[in-house]
Specification:
With about 150 residues, this protein is mainly alpha-helical. About 70% of the residues lie in helices and about 0% in strands. It contains 6 helices and no strands. The protein has helices spanning about 1-15, 30-40, 60-75, 80-100, 105-125, 130-150. Helix 3 packs antiparallel against helix 6 (about 130-150) and helix 4 runs antiparallel to helix 5. The longest helix is centred in the last third of the chain and has 22 residues, at about 105-125. It starts with a helix and ends with a helix.
């Protein structure tokens, strides 16, 4: 039940941070799958903007730095409580989505980067061993590092 609430909350926040070009769907709150499918078209094919980096706003850059710090803290503490790290990452993602003010193509590119990250955090929450969690955390860290490759 708690996971369903987090999925619905995350989905709602993503929709609140949609671009002006995104169509508004009248989907009931319990149809998270339908909303995720409609949003999935924006998550594939992250690429540079004609060879240049996309422009991210300062709030987004600060929130990405906080997510990177969460991973760094988990790594240096060698924490075995990966669920706590997953919760902190989810909180950071929720904050990022809530504070999002970006629009247009830069915003669309951000969501192509953000959606896989959200899926990785969801996978981390479901990890059933510290070894699997460590591998997922490493994958999340690599994905966070991609931000500086695609955004300035």
């Amino acid at each position: 039940m708690k996971q369903l609430f987090l999925v619905l909350l995350s989905t709602g926040m993503l929709l609140a941070c949609r671009s002006a070009n995104d169509p508004i769907e009248d989907a009931p709150a319990d149809s998270a799958t339908k909303v995720q499918e409609s949003h999935a078209e924006h998550t594939e094919g992250l690429a540079l903007n004609n060879g240049a980096q996309w422009q991210a706003d300062s709030t987004t850059r600060v929130n990405v730095t906080l997510l990177q710090r969460t991973i760094a803290d988990a790594r240096t503490a060698k924490t075995t409580n990966y669920l706590q790290t997953a919760a902190a990452l989810q909180e950071g993602l929720n904050k990022m989505v809530k504070e999002c003010t970006m629009q247009g193509p830069d915003h669309d590119a951000l969501h192509k980067w953000l959606q896989p990250l959200m899926e990785k955090v969801k996978t981390l929450k479901q990890a059933d061993s510290a070894e699997k969690a460590a591998a997922i955390l490493a994958d999340i860290e690599k994905h966070l590092d991609l931000f500086t490759q695609y955004f300035k």
